[in-house]
Predict the 3D structure of the following.
Amino acid sequence: MSIPKEVDFQKASNFAFPMVFFGKSVVLTKINIKKAAAMDEEKETKIDEVVTELSSRIERGIYVAGQKLPAEREIGDELGVSRATVRAAFLRLQADNIIDTVPRSGAFVRSPSAKVLVGPSAPKIAKGLELKRAGSFIRAMEAQGRQTLVRFIEPSSIIPAGAKIGAELGADPETKVLRRYRVHIVDRIPYRILDSYYLASLLGDLLGKDEGYIPLFKWMYEHTGQRATRAFEKINIRMPSADEAALVNISRGQPVVDMDRWVWTDKNILFEYSHIVANAALHEYTYEYPIEEEASK
């Protein structure tokens, strides 16, 4: 039987002719070709689904910049696809500059690692630190055109202040406070951890509002009429704990900026105490201060 040079699949009602693949005779039919095309389409769909799922996890901060992705087999078992499908998804994500694949090491979320400036860039334009103008780190980063995300480590909760936090807020240990424990992510990189405590009498209605970003000072002014007017910060440089290193995706030998922050309202109410741990390699702080006249005497 001679093999036709061209076959019009649209007009041909049925056909069959032998072909040889790897030394084996195979009968190629219109039905087989349709099945093969359907299988290819199904495979592409599964790859698309894996790419979408992994991209979503990266955008939501589940996988952060510099973090190694789970192995192909682990992802395949979780999503119910083959390792070949996961491998193809990795190649697409790499082509889109979302991940890097390193031979014999695995796939890693790509890390731009840009340093952020917290404070004025030069003395002539000194206007204050992140709270003074923007009201928050997130708003300051968004003003610079950066992609930001707030990921809560634990759901927000209202708890008694206890002895330690009560002392920081100058409040009774039984005073109710709103706790918000989260990570600030900029351009897919975890920049810093915030463990914040707010007087529930002013900000308790924010309980459970953990999705998205809410400008806290703006919300407080709109709902209570009180403005944040003064902040005090204490900064220290140290090595991170194991949990802190894991949350900001650094080694235990890489230093962090340890900051304590207290914020008051225009009625002189101390309403916020926050403990902030930031990746020191990604932060640069600037400040200015007046020099007393006595210094020149």
Q: What stands out?
A: The chain has two domains: 16-109, 116-285. The mean pLDDT is 80.
